[in-house]
Specification:
Blueprint lengths: L13 E4 L4 H12 L4 E5 L9 H9 L4 E5 L9 H4 L4 E4 L12 H22 L5 E5 L33 H18 L5 E7 L1 E3 L10 H7 L10 E2 L2 E6 H13 L5 E5 L2 E4 H12 L9 E2 L1 H7 L7 H7 L9 H7 L6 H14 L10
Parallel strand pairs: 1-2, 1-4, 2-3, 4-5, 5-6, 6-10, 7-9, 8-12
Antiparallel strand pairs: 9-11
Bound molecules: NADP nicotinamide-adenine-dinucleotide phosphate (NAP).
Length: 358
């Protein structure tokens, strides 16, 4: 579609797919606080746990949040929720790190077929004018070594090095986004904006999310990193900034294309250092760097292949986030606040426990 001005009627309902998710829950909350009416899709609207925060938001904003049942793998299941929406924010997609037994079935199929399914409903729903798709920096690059000999990654870059067998989650995001652009470009009624966060951290509105974000922070309290952390650089960004970016992208008429939404690059050791500064030495935070060769030996047990270690540990990584700053106006939160607020919540929820006194 040719780039134009897409104005979304703020009184129309906004559809958020995967509303239970870590990122989506913040999107739903901010949309409601902005006065919008929200339709959230969930796989099981009748489940007894994992929806409490959405029910509470619904009660705080009477009549403005409705949950619908939809599954990425059920053709047409998004039609009902989408009827009359002008803006569709598609976040639903599995984010699993480490050992994934059947990456095709658990990651690639739901991401790819799910995106096709949601966009088929968009094609069939005359009211839709814009789709905001949650992609990732991992659709921009595959392994950190991909930056060798070049500068920071930009929105012009695509991940060309991941596959079902090597880096399946990045692969799932890449093929899903590519398919989405193909579907978008085949018509001219609706346009699309894609959001590309690094690892999303920061407080969660739900304890039920299985997002890799939770797994990453949990490693700082369950002794996984007590013996040290590998020199693994990754993008990172606050969940609240990512949620706001989706909404701004939806309601900014001339927003277009891909937006890297990443605050900075950070290593596991740097996260440990930030945590130590705020929470002291009584939690099992990492102090030392695990040498690459040693990490290679233990990584497979944690679900990371030797190839992953070779191509990612010890390599620098940089993303250029200037488009998101200039065009979406994002003022990225400091990592100290993002990580500190996230861990504080884990303390409050009883997930992070102090080490026993010796
Ligand atoms: P999350 O908390 O695990 O949320 C994933 C959502 O996807 C859940 O609402 C889940 O619904 C839904 N989902 C999974 N499989 C589904 C299926 N077959 N049918 C319908 N819904 C399904 O993960 P998140 O971190 O918020 O991730 C949200 C999005 O952000 C994903 O697209 C992810 O790739 C992207 N992203 C995340 C990060 C990050 O660091 N967290 C970084 C970059 C991009 P149920 O409640 O029914 O399971």
């Amino acid at each position: 579609m040719l780039r134009g001005m897409t104005t979304i009627d703020p009184s129309k309902p906004v559809l958020v797919t995967g509303a239970t998710g870590y990122v989506a829950s913040w999107i739903v909350r901010y949309l409601l606080e902005d006065g919008r009416t929200v339709r959230g899709t969930v796989r099981d609207p009748g489940k007894s746990s994992g929806l409490e925060h959405l029910h509470a938001l619904g009660e705080a904003h009477p009549g403005r949040l409705t949950l619908y049942k939809a599954d990425l793998l059920d053709t047409g299941s998004y039609d009902e929720a989408m009827a009359d929406c002008e803006l569709v924010i598609h976040t639903a997609s599995p984010f699993l790190l480490g050992k994934v037994r059947d990456p095709q079935r658990q990651l690639v199929t739901p991401a790819l077929d799910g995106t096709r399914n949601v966009l088929a409903s968009v094609d069939a729903t005359e009211s839709v004018k814009r789709v905001v798709l949650t992609s990732s920096v991992v659709a921009i690059h595959g392994d950190n070594v991909d930056m060798k000999g070049r500068g920071a990654f930009t929105e012009a870059d695509w991940n060309t090095t991941s596959s079902v067998d090597h880096q399946p989650y990045p692969y799932s995001k890449t093929v899903a986004e590519r398919a989405a652009w193909e579907i978008c470009k085949a018509q001219d009624r609706w346009d699309m904006v894609t959001i590309h966060p690094g690892l999303v951290l920061g407080p969660s509105l739900t304890t039920a999310s299985k997002s890799g974000s939770m797994a990453t922070m949990k490693a700082f309290t369950d002794y996984t990193l007590a013996g040290g952390a590998p020199d693994l650089a990754m993008g990172m960004v606050d969940v609240r900034d990512v949620a706001r970016a989706h909404i701004t992208a939806g309601f900014t008429p001339d927003a277009h294309g891909r937006y890297i939404t990443n605050a900075r690059t950070i290593t596991m050791l740097e996260i440990g250092k930030i945590l130590r500064k705020r929470f002291g030495r009584t939690y099992p935070f990492p102090y030392t760097k695990v040498p690459k060769a040693a990490f290679k030996l233990v990584a497979p047990a944690a679900g990371y292949s030797r190839e992953f270690v070779e191509k990612n540990v010890g390599w620098p990584l940089e993303f250029d986030n200037s488009r998101s700053v200039a065009e979406l106006g994002i003022d990225y939160r400091a990592a100290e606040d993002t990580i500190g607020d996230h861990f504080q919540q884990m303390v409050d929820d009883g997930i992070a426990r102090r080490m026993p006194l010796k």
